[in-house]
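Module 6 notes. Inverse folding takes a fixed backbone as the condition and produces residue identities as the prediction. Think of it as a translation problem where the source language is geometry and the target language is the twenty amino acids. Below is one complete input and output pair. Work through it position by position during the lab.
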């Protein structure tokens, strides 16, 4: 499922968000009528709809539409999938990388679909832990593989620009199912995602 182009956003929602962001500008002490800000409510309305459009995307449908029967039964890893999300506490971005693996059980999917599944759940208000589990659950339920592994490494602007103001902390979350619950398989996955060659 492709991203919606900005011109396809619901105009009623865009209008309501524009009014909201215009009054936010004024509440923050700005002159919403000055030249540089005239189009800002519209830009922010569109940007926020873009950043939350995962609500209109269906990860299971994306995977169902790209299932192929194949006897390959080794680990498939898609690593370094960049992600941008918004923390649900402050609506500030968190961003980083997702590493996703599965061990097929007769069914594989298109590699790009794994990245699309990541985007589907990232483009919402999130906490990193739930994002990690939602990616795992969608792949597990749809492809029914022998196991799924998801690791996300991300930096949270709410911890960098404000609040505790820590610039270098990276949060790592992980979720494992099936064969990845075994130490040996999990270690192989962790070794492969930290390798420069793989
Ligand atoms: N577990 C988890 N916490 C998150 C995530 N994103 C942001 N947070 C945290 O959400 C918490 C919200 O805590 P509160 O005490 O309600 O909010 P706050 O007063 O703004 O907290 P500070 O950020 O410490 O100033 C903060 O500790 C954030 O660091 C996330 O993805 N997962
Ligand atoms: Zn936050």
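Target side of the pair, the amino acids:
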């Amino acid at each position: 499922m492709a991203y919606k182009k900005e011109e396809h956003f619901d105009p009623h929602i865009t209008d309501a968000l524009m009014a909201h962001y215009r009054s936010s500008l004024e509440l923050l002490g700005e002159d919403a009528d000055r030249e540089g800000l005239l189009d800002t409510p519209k830009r922010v309305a569109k940007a926020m709809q873009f950043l939350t459009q995962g609500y209109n995307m269906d990860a299971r449908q994306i995977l169902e539409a790209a299932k192929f029967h194949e006897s390959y039964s080794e680990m498939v890893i898609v690593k370094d999938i960049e992600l941008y999300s918004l923390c649900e506490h402050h609506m500030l971005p968190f961003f980083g990388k997702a590493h996703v693996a599965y061990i097929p059980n007769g069914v594989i999917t298109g590699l790009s679909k794994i990245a699309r599944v990541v985007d589907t759940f990232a483009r919402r208000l999130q906490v990193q832990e739930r994002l990690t589990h939602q990616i795992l659950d969608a792949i597990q339920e749809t492809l029914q593989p022998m196991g799924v592994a998801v690791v996300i490494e991300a930096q949270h602007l709410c911890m960098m620009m404000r609040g505790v103001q820590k610039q270098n902390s990276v949060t790592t979350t992980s979720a494992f199912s099936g064969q990845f619950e075994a130490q040996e398989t999990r270690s192989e996955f962790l070794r492969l995602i930290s390798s420069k060659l793989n």
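Reference fact for the lab report: Helices lie at 11-27, 40-51, 59-64, 111-122, 128-143, 157-160, 183-194.
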